[in-house]
Every structure is written in structure tokens, then in C-alpha cells.
User: What shape does this take?
Amino acid sequence: MKFNNILYSAAALAMTASLCSCEGEKDLVIIDGNLPIKTSALYMVGNATPNGWDIDNPTPFEATGEDPLVFTWQGNLLAGEMKLCLVTGSWDSPFIRPEINGSEIGREPIVDAAFQMHAGDPDNKWIITEAGVYSLTFDLRNWTMSSAYLGEADKPAKDPIKVDRLFVVGDATPNGWNIDTPTACEKKSDYIFEYEGKLTAGEFKAVAETGSWDAKFIRPAVEGVKLTKVGFTEPGIVYTTSPDNKWTVTDAGIYHIVFDLENCTVTATFTADSQEPGEEPGDVIETETLYLIGDATPGGWSMDNLTAMTQSDDDKYLFVWEGTLVSGDMKACIEPDSSFGCPFLRPTSNGCTIGKDGVQDSAFVYTTSPDDKWTIVDSGRYRIEFNLKEWTIKATFLD
Assistant: This one.
């Protein structure tokens, strides 16, 4: 009988233990808060930050001595966007972001606002509403951030800018956004560079070296500076990687631009409207090569298989090609550009036809946009002639 009582007691204890165990497991599954983000480095990237969108060289924070997972930064922020990352060189890694896209950082202080971290979309970013000096704190242990506006932004340095050469680049310039072959300015003295030539409606900035968008650029000192027939709306310039301010040309034409790198100013004189076909004298397109491209041409839209034209021995501005064109579109460029960011020779209006009766309009323009093209309406053998001095195209149907 005792043995049975012992069994009953043991069974009761086991059931009680089991019930207690279940209750305990229910308590354990509740996890309150995020785990700390363990890292030894923190960076911010964006056009509001000192190093812009350069993911290979983002702006670093410093870990505090009191807590290695609390990072701080103090300095100038521009009006613009930003987010944070733990590693450099990769846009695919997780980023620290606001919980709501477009969360503002400005004069009003922020205290312990929650943030999130993830890779990919949604690509939430903070918006700096006003340029100035800020103090930022990111607590990676508690997933919060704080900010304080400390005052107006430091004024850009006005020290003389010393460079050996200068180029203008942008869709307003003859060579478009081609950083490998931007349009050269003429060096007049140690600090004076000049450009005289055609500018189309669009944007541009200036650079001292070719081949890299990570270089410093000479830019307007403030955002939104325009170039009109009466000149620049603001003369100041800066030499910096960000923000990506550019001049906006509102009136196309021939301009004489003077960059004074000693006094950090730029001036411009409007000299003439853009050259019309047949005008003398005027700017010309200087090149030793010219190519046709498009689905109407033998090489199609391949930049690796352009259809080369032949420069005349008697006139370096005259280029000729004979061959078969099929129904489709075409335009012309002076050199291969796999990005298609270079300027093209184009008709003055999209869809200008070429057929048995020749070309609908003999005038052409040289620009990056709009993406106007000639349309071949009759397949066959043609003789195509471009006159880069007269800015005209001639098409003769041969067969």
C-alpha cells in the first residue's frame, strides 16, 4: 500500500513539474527589445554628409569612451539626405535608417528616436532640412538616435584653387556627361581659365581631372544658380565633392565663361545665339571621327560595332558614308561611349525622315537630349554626308 502511495505521490509531483515547465516555457518566448548592434565602426553617407554618396569613403562616427556601442559625430551637414552603414564599399549591406522615410533632422532637437536597420527596400533616409553644424548620437545598444543643431554652417573656404587644367562637363556642354573626355577650358594664367563655345539648355560643373566622378568639382557656392543671357545669377564657386550643385543653363547659345580660381568667382558673357546652319563664322565640331548608330544602320545600336564615316581629304569638316540603310532610326556620334551619355548629332525634331527624296530637314543639332533621331522610311543604298561646319546633313538615295 505504501508503494502505491509513493507511486501516486511521484506521479503528482511529475504532473506539477510538467505544468510548471510549460508555464516557464511560455514566459521564455517573450523577448523584449532588439539585440545590440555589435560593431566597431559606423559611417554615414548621403548628399547631406561631408563625403556625399561615396560609399567607399563615407563619413565616420566615433565610439564614445563610456559605451563602445554609442557613436557620435559633430560637424557640418548640408540640406539633403543621409543614412548610416557599418561597412564601406557595399550598397547591398544593411543600413541604419529612420522608421519613417523622410524623417527630418533640423533645428528642433531629437532625443532617443527609434531607428531600424535592414538591407534593400524600403530605402528610408533622414532629411536634413537646413544646412548647419550638428551633433549626432547613435545608440546601437538601444536602437535610438539623437540630434542637436549647434549653429549655422561654416562658410566655404575662399583659399585660391590651384589646378593645372580645367574642364566643363554636363549635358549643357559639347561633350555631355562624358567624364573621360570632358570639354577643355583654356588656361590663361595660374588661376584664370576660360571657356568659349556653345552651351545648350541643361546643367554643368567643372573638374580638374578626367576619368573619375569621385574627384572634387568646381561648383556654384549655393544650389540653384542659373546661367542666362545676362550671366550667372550668383558668382561664387567652391571646390568640393558635395553637395552636387551644378549650374543650370536656361538660355542656349555661345558663351564666354571666365573661372577666377584665385578669387573663387565665375563670370559669363553671352556672345551669340546657337549657330544656325550656314552661318559664318560660328562654332564647329572638331573631330577626326564620326559614326552612325541605330537599328537602321549595319551595326545596329551596338557601340562596339559603330558604322564609321570617312573624313574628306579636301574638307576636314565633311564626313561621307555610302551603304545600305534599312527602315528604322539613326543618329551619329564622334566616338564610342558605352554609357550613351555622350552628345549625338541629331535632327532638330524627332522622326525627321530620310527616304528616296532625301532628308526632310537638312539642319542638325549636337546635344545629349532630347533623344531625337532620324527615321529611315525607304530601305536601300544611301550616300550620307555631314558638314560639321555648316551643321547640315545630306542624304542621297542611290538604289
